[in-house]
């Protein structure tokens, strides 16, 4: 598989580690790092939780879609928000500017990491459990992924190594 080395875009459920892994990967490969959640917060001048409260799920998805469409860096790892896949234009844009990597983890393991969903300000679309939110999104994560990384049982360091190997074309996973 050919990896588009301009940008690496991380997608996946909240708690899958896009932000935690992304910055470590960026440092390792000499790339920049952008967390699109922080770009959204800066643009709106409030926290993600507050934006969701104010605009509702649909309003947040629209804002996130617009912001993500405006992110066009070079040689950068982009950690997206868990709900980024609801933005069709943004995901098409990301596929144009880089390689999209889905960090895959089953809902049981996500639950252990997440703690309170409410505190994280998740776009729930009326769903209340991690399992239901996962079920609502899993097809979208798979649809947009150029690479799917199963991180079950892996430490952050191991997942970064696995991704590094793929990027550097020493690929034994795809
Ligand atoms: N093996 C692991 N891999 C990744 N993260 C892990 C692992 N074990 C524990 N964690 C923890 O899980 C959490 C992952 O959260 P993080 O904010 O990176 O996820 P995210 O995908 O960016 O979520 P969001 O969509 O809400 O932005 C962190 O607190 C991290 O330390
Ligand atoms: O998965 C989600 O619904 C979200 C994840 C966060 O990264 C933020 O983008 C926001 O809190 C919504
Ligand atoms: Mg994040």
From TrEMBL:
Cofactor: how bound: Binds 1 Mg(2+) ion per subunit.
Superkingdom of origin: Bacteria
Record GO biological process: amino acid biosynthetic process; aromatic amino acid family biosynthetic process; chorismate biosynthetic process
Entry EC no(s): 2.7.1.71
Residues annotated as binding ATP: 15-20, 120
Chief location of this protein within or outside the cell: cytoplasm
Residues involved in Mg(2+) binding: 19
Pathway given in the UniProt record: Metabolic intermediate biosynthesis; chorismate biosynthesis; chorismate from D-erythrose 4-phosphate and phosphoenolpyruvate: step 5/7
Keyword Nucleotide-binding on entry: yes
Catalytic activity: shikimate + ATP = 3-phosphoshikimate + ADP + H(+)
Assigned GO CC terms: cytosol
MF GO annotations: ATP binding; magnesium ion binding; shikimate kinase activity
Residues the entry annotates as binding substrate: 37, 82, 137
Any Pfam family hit: SKI
Record's subcellular location: Cytoplasm
Entry keywords, A to Z: Amino-acid biosynthesis, Aromatic amino acid biosynthesis, ATP-binding, Cytoplasm, Kinase, Magnesium, Metal-binding, Nucleotide-binding, Transferase
Signal peptide: none
Assembly notes: Monomer.
Listed name of the protein: Shikimate kinase
Protein's organism: Lachnospira eligens (strain ATCC 27750 / DSM 3376 / VPI C15-48 / C15-B4)
